[in-house]
């Protein structure tokens, strides 16, 4: 899987589209199924994986912080 670039726009400038949303949800679901979720959320490696998955599947570069912020804002209570 491709690594997410080190520099991407600020979290407020992330451009979330249906394809990037789907990639994030799919990546985090995979991480949950594989046991990389703890009581208070996902492990750091899960967020790194999710960021890379969004880049690979949606060709949109987002960093870990952007993924976390978007998940916190849009995801149902988890």
What does it look like?
The protein is mainly alpha-helical. Helix content is 54%, strand content 5%. It has helices at 18-33, 44-58, 64-74; strands at 37-38, 41-42. Strands 1-2 form a two-stranded antiparallel ribbon.
* Net shape: globular
The mean pLDDT is 86
Strand order of the largest sheet: 1-2
Number of extended strands: 2
Mind telling me the C-alpha Rg?
11 Å
The secondary structure category is: mainly alpha
Count of alpha/pi helices: 3
Helix content: 40-55%
Roughly how many Å apart are the termini?
Answer: 26 Å
Strand content: 5-15%
Compressed to H and E, one letter per element, the order equals HEEHH
Largest sheet: 2 strands, antiparallel
Brief summary:
54% of the residues lie in helices and 5% in strands.
What characteristics describe this protein?
78 residues; mainly alpha; two-stranded antiparallel ribbon; 3 helices; globular
Q: Could you outline the blueprint of secondary structure elements for this entry?
A:
Blueprint: H1 18-33, E1 37-38, E2 41-42, H2 44-58, H3 64-74
Antiparallel strand pairs: 1-2
Helix pairs in contact: 1-2, 2-3
